[in-house]
Design brief:
single chain; alpha+beta; Ubiquitin-like (UB roll); Creatine Kinase, Chain A, domain 2; eight-stranded mixed β-sheet; five-stranded mixed β-sheet; 13 strands; 19% strand; globular; glutamine synthetase activity
Length: 434
């Protein structure tokens, strides 16, 4: 069916439909006046008010046309969808992705085909045998493409089906599939802190280039152009995560200016880590569009500035029931005995953050306390009062792998049993009665 061309002509010439409707009916007097004006010689001041915008080649027009194409809704015309396959690269923290067409919308990850990529380009395979296979494990609605399009969280395997060394999800899935762990229904609430950096100079957003803002204090959960830097990015990320189906529960400005935090959870088992990884991917894409650099460095600025952590709140069914406080203390005891193992897996560069200052415990010393943010493990006042609840592991760095941290917490507190002797010594040292 032919489409009317008049509206598009009006747009190109800068005429609105309202201006046409408001124009009076043409009379003989008006027509003669127009003819008379047309015969008069043109002066420099007599310029046309009608501008053919289509002929202008400015960047704004190009951007507008590009945005129109990006926002196209393909749903009425095809059942096909775009699936963005996301995986973790060779550093263990870099996020990679590529897109493919899928014939129709899906309801479960098992309906999505496996795919492959060049592992030699991500530091995950040698050049002579570079194929790495992507296994779809979870998917979310795509806030960038909209419609039925999806973001797909994958883990990585060799062509023979063996998990590659950087595939931390595989081991986590094994732990979370243990019957004892399933019966305890482990809940996680993960607090992801991050820093926004100015491009090129790699200096925090809102900071004077090569200089420093005023001391910490006014910036935490603050409002105002001189105190809050990057709120639009935080809010855009918040809404995008809700759209995607990520269980994001809140966000706030952090202690160091240019630093933010969002929380994912409470989520059960491995789902918590899938949600955190997808939320990180969305944040990377949003900062990319904003022309800002995302940093998960646990201590982006040396000196008297807070670092960036990924505090992990954790509870089991037994902790949440009557008598749960004793179960929490037993879990803390187990965590103290495996402190070194946890610290070694809690993020690169964490020793620069865990100094005993800026609301952290010293990396070499395990400690716990009620409402104490300077401890390794914090227990809330409400948990102490009610005699049940959860604990907060404050040791993980902002660049930690949530698959590793969540599965280690479950393994250490649910599956692992220390010897009676080591348990007694640890209880005495921590003054725990269990």
């Amino acid at each position: 069916m032919a489409h009317m061309l008049v509206p598009s002509m009006q747009c190109r010439m800068g005429i609105t439909s309202n201006s046409i409707q408001a124009r009076p009916i043409m009379t003989a007097k008006t027509w003669n006046s127009l003819l008379s004006n047309a015969r008069r010689p043109k002066t420099k001041k007599s310029t046309s008010t009608f501008k053919v915008l289509a002929l202008k080649s400015d960047n704004n027009g190009a951007v507008s046309r590009l945005e129109n194409l990006l926002n196209l809704d393909i749903t009425p015309f095809t059942d096909k969808i775009i699936a963005e396959y996301i995986w973790i690269g060779g550093t263990g923290i870099d996020i990679r992705s590529k897109a493919r067409t899928v014939p129709r919308p899906v309801e479960h990850p098992s309906e999505l085909p496996k795919w492959n990529y060049d592992g030699s380009s991500t530091g995950q395979a040698p050049g002579e045998d570079s194929e790495v296979i992507l296994y779809p494990q979870a998917f979310f609605r795509d806030p960038f493409r909209g419609g039925n399009n999806i973001l797909v969280i994958c883990d990585c395997y060799t062509p023979s089906g063996e998990p590659i060394p950087t595939n931390k999800r595989y081991r986590a899935a094994q732990i979370f599939s243990e019957k004892k762990v399933i019966n305890e229904t482990p809940w996680y609430g993960i607090e992801q802190e991050y820093t926004l950096l100015q491009p090129n100079v790699k200096w925090p957003l809102g900071w004077p280039v090569g200089g420093y803002p005023g001391p910490q204090g006014p910036y935490y959960c603050a409002a105002g152009a001189d105190k809050s830097f990057g709120r639009d990015i935080s809010d855009a990320h918040y809404k995008a995560c809700l759209y995607a189906g990520i269980n994001i529960s809140g966000t706030n400005g952090e202690v160091m200016p240019g630093q933010w935090e969002y929380q994912v959870g409470p989520s059960v088992g491995i789902e918590a880590s899938d949600h955190v990884w997808c939320s990180r991917y969305i944040l990377e894409r949003i900062t990319e569009q904003a022309g800002v650099v995302l940093s998960l460095n646990p201590k982006p600025i040396e000196g008297d500035w807070n670092g960036a952590g990924c505090h992990t709140n954790f509870s089991t069914k037994s902790m949440r029931e009557e008598g749960g406080y004793e179960v929490i203390k037993k879990a803390i005891l187990n965590l103290s005995l495996r402190h070194k193992e946890h610290i070694s897996a809690y993020g690169e560069g964490n020793e620069r953050r865990l100094t005993g200052k800026h609301e952290t415990a010293n990396i070499n010393t395990f400690s716990w306390g009620v409402a104490n943010r300077g401890c390794s493990i914090r227990v809330g006042r409400e948990t102490e009062r009610r005699g049940k609840g959860y604990l907060e592991d404050r040791r993980p760095a902002s660049n930690m792998d949530p698959y590793v941290v969540t599965s280690m917490l479950a393994e250490t507190t649910i599956l692992w049993e220390p010897t009676l002797e080591s348990e007694a010594l640890a209880a005495k040292k921590l003054q725990l009665q269990v």
